[in-house]
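Suppose you are handed only these lines of text.
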Amino acid sequence: MPEFLELMPPQEALAVWLRAMPEPRVGVERIPSAQALGRVTAEAVRSPEALPGFARSTVDGYAVQARSTHGASDTLPAYLELVGEVPMGAAPGFAVGLGQAAVIHTGGMLPQGADSVVMLELTQTARAGEIEIFKAVAAGENVLKAGEDVGIGEEVLGRGVRLDAAAIGGLMALGLTEVAAARKPLAAVLSSGDEVVPPDRAVRPGQVRDVNSYALAALVESCGGEARLYGIVPDRAEALRAALRRALDEADFVVITAGSSASARDLTAAVIRESGAPGVLVHGVNVRPGKPTILGVCDGKPVVGLPGNPVSALVIARLFVRPLVARLLGAVPGKPQAAVPARLSLNLASQAGREDWVPVRLRREAQGWAAEPIFYKSNLIFSLAHADGLVCIPPDATGLEVGAAVEVVLL
Ligand SMILES: Nc1nc2c(c(=O)[nH]1)N[C@H]1C(S)=C(S)[C@@H](COP(=O)(O)OP(=O)(O)OC[C@H]3O[C@@H](n4cnc5c(N)ncnc54)[C@H](O)[C@@H]3O)O[C@H]1N2
Ligand code: MOO
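From them, the structure of the protein bound to LQZAQKY5 can be written out as follows.
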């Protein structure tokens, strides 16, 4: 059977495309740390202070000098003089000497002289002003040392790090209520096709609502980019040319859907080719779904032409748009996507030489997760909407057998 396109393996296609782009100039903006979830650091963050800022107890009990408890046991307790109670939120105004103890609460500041804390459960009050200790502690026991988390001037977050909940907590612990974040790259999303109408329209026979603009905008945003919709362009070269020109002028990169294949109305590749140098770098990727994918660069701006079928468009956007956004954000490369190991619940056939991405549902079984393939068609959006993840069948396999160990990349 003749093939319209020359197909390139996906990894090679991505490398060719990324190589043809200029080094990204990552914009920097200072944003409130409280709103920085999912954002990428544009500069390394150094700690202005030590954390914890002072030695703290990790338990409720008595601050002591470890030496004072030496040899203490159930049968031979150590008797220590009670010299005070550490207030929470303030420095204790006293010291603890040999043979002395002070009441301390979890998180309280160790008094001068104390080097450890005996847990409340291992003590007993015998007489007023005195406690009995039933177990010896070692120096440093039940104590967080000053600077144990981070030291002054230490790099706590590198450049290009995606901020998660813990990182935001860490920034707050240091009083860093603002952070330098990479500006979100702006994607211009263009849909094309005479049959495609906005989703708020009633459809006439032959028409379909625009799935791709919204699904792709959501995907771009989930990767840390910003998306602006450039509407639905009819199947006319001059209309697509004008829309692409405006998109290239305004956005950091352009995502066009449909018109990627081989029919007379498939204009995307030709229009990209004439809209800037070097134009189209890849047209056709050895992957299913998404074979007619187009990767281009127009005068420094990346352009991707995704297949019109919504499942293909989204799967391909994960393979190509996601790494593009990461690069434009200056994100540290090579971070894995969330995935779970599973056993395949059915045989899956695949063509040798082609990489296949199959939507699967995950089912919990006694020994772990079972991945149940969804027999999708690339136009049927709910075959992807009902999936929990994707399984990759590598190009050197002619399929995977029931029971095969697979990795499910979570959607
Ligand atoms: N003779 C061949 N025909 C096709 C081949 C092939 O190799 N030889 N490849 C098929 C594959 S695979 C794909 S994928 C599609 C690619 O199509 P295009 O990118 O050219 O897109 P269209 O033909 O315009 O649309 C395909 C399909 O998707 C629907 N569509 C388009 N845009 C949207 C949108 N924004 N929202 C929802 N649905 C959309 C469109 O109505 C079509 O049903 O080509 C195959 N054909
Ligand atoms: O590549 Mo098409 O995307 O298989 O449906």
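What can we learn from it? The two ends are 34 Å apart (CA to CA). The chain is about 20% helix and 30% strand.
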